[in-house]
Amino acid sequence: MRGGDYAELRAFAAVVRHGSFTRAAAHLGVSPSALSQTIRALEDRLGQRLLNRTTRSVAPTAAGQALAERLLPVLDDLDGVVDTAFAAAGEVSGRLRLDVVRVAMPHLARLVPGFLARYPRVRLEVASNDALVDIVALGFDAGIRLAERLEGDMIAVPFGGDLRMICVAAPDYLARHPEPLHPRDLADHACMVTLTPSTGTPYRWEFEKEGEALRIAVNGPLISRDTDLRVAATVAGVGIGFFFEDEVRDLISAGRLVQLLADWTPAFPGAYLYFPSRRNPAPPLRAFVDYVREMGRGQTFPEG
Question: Which H, E and C letters describe 135-184, residue by residue?
């Protein structure tokens, strides 16, 4: 295979994986126009269109999909061979792609600088995504999501400790409305509504006390997935909000928000780093799992 052929095939694979010329070009370190010319050269050489392009999206044609299904595993295997060679020489190298639930991003941000300092030849790509995705189909090496949303056939490593969701309101709102003493009292309050990523339906607030679990449907003047917007509206006294404790801890300490129904919001198992199989993980993933365990529990990735 000529070097130019290899470059064209890697360019095609990048566009398929990222679903965008712009994102693929950024990944490859080239301009979108140069990438487009590379893809056209590949299509001309093969004598068929591989990608359908519109102003809003890029998708493989039937021929492109057939090529991608055979090409992507081969390129992944080749990358693995190179990465393993570096690892045998005592240096971890290669790409690590992670799909990460938003609430785990702060903990990831605390780990990344140290990890990259230890493994400077690793290229870390992170996508923030609250929706359930198939990490294998989308080309991710691993994901980080909440324990309750893990698939049963995944290997999981605790990531960041327990979490807690809490109910809060601004002092101004509580001065105008009676404080809810039971989760069912929220039916009489304006609440900040968010949507479940996987279904797009309003998220029911979850409470638990002494073995009794409740899922409460709330209503209010604002419906948004954006946490910053819902926090701002809650601080302004628009209504009651339901957030991860880390998202509003400083506002509570500053007296700008007041925690409600504290005895109904216990901690629960938090996020997990997960991946499909522990057999022969790529060196960057193996190094990252080891690092997470080292920082969290002082354990290393088991052999085998």
Answer: CCCCCCCEEEEEHHHCCCCCEEEEECCCECEEEEECHHHHHHCCCCCCHH
Distance, CA of 105 to CA of 147 (rounded, Å): 15
* Model pLDDT for residues 247-302, shown as the tens digit of each residue: 999 999 999 999 999 999 999 888 899 988 655 678 899 999 999 999 875 444 44
pTM of the model: 0.62
Tell me the per-residue pLDDT of 70-97, one tens digit each, with 9 for 90 and over: 888 887 767 666 656 655 556 788 889 9
C-alpha span between 113 and 119 (Å, rounded):
10
How many CB atoms within 10 Å of residue 49?
A: 15
CA distance 115 to 123: 11
What letter represents residue 37's amino acid?
Q
Helix, strand, coil share of the chain (percent; to 5): 45, 20, 35
Domains of the chain: 1-76 (1.10.10.10), 91-160+269-304 (3.40.190.10), 165-264 (3.40.190.290)
